[in-house]
Design brief:
Layout (H helix, E strand, L loop, with lengths): L1 H22 L22 H27 L1
Length: about 70
């Protein structure tokens, strides 16, 4: 169970950081899979910035909970 929490916490943190950086318009990634005429989204997005920050916080909280349990024992 500890390995699962480490993997999920790390993935959530990494994904959240990516979404936050894209939402802040610090990086732009071209679309990878397109069905129709796809164009990269330009400009920042407060929605994706917020989602990214929340996801990062959840991932870091999950990872921090593992360290807290270790200190209690």
């Amino acid at each position: 169970m500890k390995v699962f929490k480490v993997i999920v916490g790390t993935l959530l943190t990494a994904l959240g950081l990516l979404w936050a950086v894209q939402g802040a318009d610090l990086i732009q990634i071209k679309p990878i899979l397109c069905v129709a005429d796809c164009e990269p989204i330009t400009g920042g997005s407060t929605l994706w910035l917020s989602i990214g920050l929340i996801t990062t916080a959840i991932g870091l909280a999950l990872l921090a909970s593992l360290k807290l349990k270790r200190r209690i024992r």
